[in-house]
Amino acid sequence: MEGLDMNECKHRAGQGSASNPINAEAHALTLAVEVASAWHRGGGSDRPEIPLGIVATIAAAGLLVDRTADVAEGMKSASPDGFVDIARSLWAVTFSRHPALAMSVYPLLGWLFADAHEAPLKQIKATADAALRAGLLELTVTERRFDCDVLGPLVGALRSRTATKVNAQMYTPGDIACALTAVALDDLEPGQSFCDDAVGTGGLFRAAVCVVRSRGLDPADMSWFGADVDDLAIAAAAVNGLIWGLGPRVYLYVGDILTHPRWADEACARQATFLEEVKSLNKGIKVLDFLKTL
Fold first, then answer.
1. Is there a contact between 208 and 194 (Cβ–Cβ < 8 Å)?
2. What's the pTM value of the predicted model, to 2 decimals?
3. Which of 84, 176, 180, 255 is most buried, taking the most CB atoms under 10 A from its CB?
């Protein structure tokens, strides 16, 4: 079945009727402000990949267990270096289950490899605590996860102090997503492919997920192709793919699509090569070690 081009959906979205945004979006914006504020208060480091990685870690953790309250309590009670140890273990398990995810997410995980005296451990822990207090797990492990993009607003909030016009990004707001849902209820079947060559953190993927689920289908049975010049946005899209249940056929590309018109093929080839390289690594912790070499 021919894929659904997200550029066409963006063009057609204005023809649909949008419903009021669900309050999960407002919650996500509040969380972004709280996390960014906590990070900047802790020392002013302009490294958005660290707090973004912290939030991604907590979100991934919540998806691994049934009792998210236990996860939250364990993280809250951990020491700063203990939290980093927990994070390493969580990603080890996550990558053992979803090895392809490591290829896109690794830009968010450098703080897991830093020496103890180099990593801003207290700042990391304070940021994690702020994310938990702001209700991050409510937005990533319940049905509300389909109502918002938690990571998109956070990328913007974290970059607000240093972003330039060159790398400023526009994330798809909820009204456009709702309009997309209204206009995209065409025939769908397992195997449908979705493509967005300006994917950002995946806002339009979320809208497509809502379409797929509304038709009684599973997003994991579809294929998802996304490209962006920003490696942090792509990393966030990969984590969002986990949150939204996009499944194993997610192909993300970092680069300029104008100079690489066959980027989707390149994304598939890169992922196949990566998976072949880690095929013999039967434990997620070894995948973490492998990421240090990239």
1. yes
2. 0.85
3. 180
Report residue 85 as tokens.
């140890």
Contact 193, 3 (CB under 8 A): yes
Phi/psi of residue 229, nearest 5 degrees: -80, -15
Distance CA(95)–CA(99), nearest Å, equals 5
Query: For 227-281, how does the pLDDT look when each residue is reduced to its tens digit (9 = 90+)?
Result: 999 999 999 999 999 999 999 999 999 999 999 999 999 999 999 999 988 877 6
What is the residue whose two structure tokens read 């066959």? 262
Q: What distance lies between CA 276 and its chain's CA centroid? A: 23
Burial of 129 (0-12, 13-18, 19+ CB in 10 A): middle
Q: What are the E-state strand segments in 138-263?
A: 193-196, 223-228, 250-254
Contact 146, 209 (CB under 8 A): yes
